């Protein structure tokens, strides 16, 4: 089944897992019916955004949001989306988390985590540290042990989050599945920027 | 390959539409009633030098020569009016093309001054009689190209005896290349098609090639023959039965594929227009069919424009042409802009690739 754009609020995210995560979040906010989430495999760049803009039904979009990982360069990640949007004729916002309206469409970008290196899982790791500190302290010990043995983990937050998931009876859940299964409460200040972004997108 | 760019104004559903970066194989996508067939018709008309092609496209669509109620006397709208956007005959149709060679060509179609024709009662389409028995000019067809060729032909509707005829005055020069239009509803055994296929079958190597290609659909195929049934020559296939099988009994896929390959072979250096290219073809055969169409189009230097509603058809075409250097596939979707006007979305290789990979709807 191919993705046709059918809603006026469109959120572009990185991958199917992120799609399920943000869909769960939108459901929690009561916005699931108002927003269509499109997963793009890999990083979102000019070519990927162009493909979305070319997709059947795009002209009904009034509000476009893009969420991507900061990775090693939060400012570079933001600027890359800004440049892509400009090439496609949109007016991008000047900072992450904001929207700009022009020519009947508002456009927003959110880079996660905000103003620091990392991924969506960096935000989740913080949430888990707060909400499930007992289990996460065990996870931390495990990674300390690895590091003590000279094993360097590149994406430590991502690794911690998946290790945490492995502590449940169904140990191989992905991020999206964990979100759907209620592994954390959405009512957490670490999710504030995402919450605000989705509300701005849909209002 | 002929065309690099085309621009169509005031034709059928198009106020103005432009297709750039045309390729050897061009797929036209879009919803129903968005103008895919009309686009092929515009190319068909611009590829010839003959205003009669306009009337022929109406016939392909199944319209009678004179689409009127003939139950009694009434006024008749000119049969060319339907070619003008929104029936606005005050605006000329403009068909502009730029060829790969860099030459340009412009065709302007002007409706003759509005008028009506009174018809007396008649028994049938072929026996319509025009009161007064005069001729009526339908439109003028003004051709101009960058090589300096220039002429004006007029399409004239005239009474002759009890019937009606179309005349082209003065007769236009021959076009530089031949264009064939394949409609999905066309019957396989129109005499001109059988004649064309018969000519190819007389050339041994080409016949062999056709048999090899048709084996994509029917691996048992041994031979292809033209055998009269009554006085009508009919294409037959030998698939190992005691008797050769009339082609339509072998299936629509065979009919369609034979039509495509014989059309390409018949118009070297020309253009083949195919409406609903996937019609009658199973998806599992599409990879090989695109391979064959691509190879033949290259060998015979034919440019192809095909409409499709099938995503599989686009994906298999992409998979087949993606590794070619140069890349031979153009994919265009016709859609409405915010003001309701039709426009074209042109998929380059990368955008098409990402759209397919991410399952983004492109039809």
Write a brief caption for the model:
The complex is a heterodimer of chains A (203) and B (363). By secondary structure, chain A is an alpha/beta fold.
- What coarse outline of chain A follows from CA principal-axis ratios? globular
Rg of chain A, nearest Å: 17 Å
- Taken in chain order, the helices and strands of chain A follow as EHEHEHEEHHHHH
Shape of chain B: globular
Number of helices of chain B: 8
- Main beta sheet of chain B, described? 7 strands, antiparallel
Helix content of chain B: 25-40%
Q: Which structural class should the secondary elements of chain B be placed in?
A: alpha+beta
Weakly predicted, low-confidence segments of chain B: 67-75, 118-132
Strand content of chain A: 15-25%
- Report the sheet-strand fraction of chain B: 25-35%
- Element order of chain B: H for helix, E for strand: EEEHHEEEEEEEEHHEEEHEHEHEEH
Largest interface: A-B, 20 and 19 residues
The number of E-state strands of chain B comes to: 18
What is the residue-mean pLDDT of chain A, rounded to a whole number? 96
Give the overall average pLDDT of chain B: 87
Secondary-structure-derived class of chain A: alpha/beta
- Strand arrangement within the widest β-sheet of chain A reads 2-1-3-5-4
Features:
heterodimer, A: 5-stranded mixed β-sheet, 15% strand, globular, B: 7-stranded antiparallel β-sheet, 6-stranded mixed β-sheet, 18 strands
What would your notes on this structure say?
The complex is a heterodimer of chains A (203) and B (363). The two termini of chain A are 29 Å apart. Chain A is built from eight helices and five strands. By secondary structure, chain A is an alpha/beta fold. Chain A is globular. In chain A, helix 1 links the parallel strand 1 and strand 2. The model of chain A has no long low-confidence stretch (mean pLDDT 96). In chain A, 46% of the residues lie in helices and 15% in strands. Chain B has 363 residues and is an alpha+beta fold. Chain B is built from eight helices and 18 strands. A seven-stranded antiparallel beta sheet of chain B has the order 2-1-5-6-8-9-10, with helices on one face. In chain B, helix 3 packs across helix 5, helix 5 runs parallel beside helix 6 and helix 6 crosses helix 7. Chain B is globular. Chain B starts with a strand and ends in a 6-residue tail after the last helix. Chains A and B meet through strand 2 and helix 2 of A and strand 17 and helix 8 of B.
């Amino acid at each position: 089944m191919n993705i046709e754009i059918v809603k006026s609020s469109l959120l572009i995210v990185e991958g199917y897992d992120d799609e399920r995560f943000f869909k769960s979040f939108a459901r929690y906010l009561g916005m699931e019916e108002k927003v269509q989430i499109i997963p793009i495999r890999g990083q979102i760049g000019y070519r990927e955004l162009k493909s979305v803009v070319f997709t059947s039904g795009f002209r009904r979009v009034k509000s476009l949001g893009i969420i991507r990982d900061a990775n090693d360069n939060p400012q570079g990640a933001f600027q890359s989306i800004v440049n892509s949007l400009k090439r496609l004729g949109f007016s991008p916002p000047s900072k992450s988390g904001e929207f700009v309206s022009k020519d009947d469409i508002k456009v927003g970008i959110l880079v996660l985590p905000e103003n620091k290196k990392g991924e969506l899982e960096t935000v989740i790791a913080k949430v888990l540290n707060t909400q499930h500190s007992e289990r996460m302290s065990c996870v931390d010990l495990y990674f300390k042990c690895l590091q003590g043995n000279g094993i360097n983990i590149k994406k430590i937050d991502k690794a911690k989050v998946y290790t945490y998931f492995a502590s449940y009876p169904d140990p191989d859940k992905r991020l999206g599945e964990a979100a759907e299964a209620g592994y954390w409460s959405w009512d957490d200040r670490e999710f504030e920027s995402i919450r605000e972004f989705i509300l701005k997108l849909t209002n | 390959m002929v065309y690099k760019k085309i621009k169509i104004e005031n034709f059928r559903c198009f106020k103005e539409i432009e297709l750039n970066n045309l390729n050897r194989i061009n797929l036209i996508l879009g919803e129903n009633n968005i103008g895919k067939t009309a686009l092929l018709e515009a190319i068909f008309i611009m590829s010839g030098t003959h205003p009669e092609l306009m009337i022929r496209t109406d016939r392909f669509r199944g319209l009678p020569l004179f689409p009127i109620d003939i139950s009694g006397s009434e006024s008749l709208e000119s049969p060319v009016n339907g070619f003008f956007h929104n029936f606005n005959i005050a605006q000329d149709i403009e068909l502009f093309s730029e060829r790969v060679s860099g030459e340009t060509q412009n065709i302007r179609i002007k409706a003759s001054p509005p008028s009506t024709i009174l018809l007396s009662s008649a028994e049938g389409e072929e026996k319509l009689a025009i009161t007064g028995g005069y001729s009526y000019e339908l439109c003028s067809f003004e051709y101009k190209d960058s090589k300096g060729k220039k002429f004006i032909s007029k399409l004239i509707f005239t009474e002759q005896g009890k019937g009606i005829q179309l005349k082209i005055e003065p007769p236009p020069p021959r076009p530089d290349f031949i264009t064939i239009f394949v409609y999905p509803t066309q019957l396989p055994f129109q005499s001109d098609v059988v004649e064309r296929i018969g000519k190819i079958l007389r050339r041994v190597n080409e016949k062999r090639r056709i048999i090899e290609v048709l084996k994509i659909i029917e691996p048992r195929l041994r031979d292809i023959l033209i055998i009269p049934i009554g006085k009508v020559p009919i294409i037959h296939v030998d698939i190992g039965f005691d008797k050769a099988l009339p082609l339509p009994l072998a299936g629509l896929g065979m009919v369609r594929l034979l039509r495509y390959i014989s059309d390409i072979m018949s118009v070297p250096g020309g253009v083949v227009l195919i409406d609903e290219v996937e019609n009658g073809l199973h998806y599992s055969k599409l990879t090989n069919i695109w391979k064959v169409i691509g190879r033949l189009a290259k060998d015979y230097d034919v440019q192809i424009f095909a409409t499709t509603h099938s995503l599989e058809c686009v994906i298999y075409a992409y998979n087949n042409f993606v590794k070619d250097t140069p890349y031979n596939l153009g994919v265009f979707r016709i859609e409405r802009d915010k003001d309701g006007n039709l426009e074209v979305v042109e998929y380059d290789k990368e955008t098409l690739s990402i759209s397919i990979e991410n399952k983004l709807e492109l039809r």
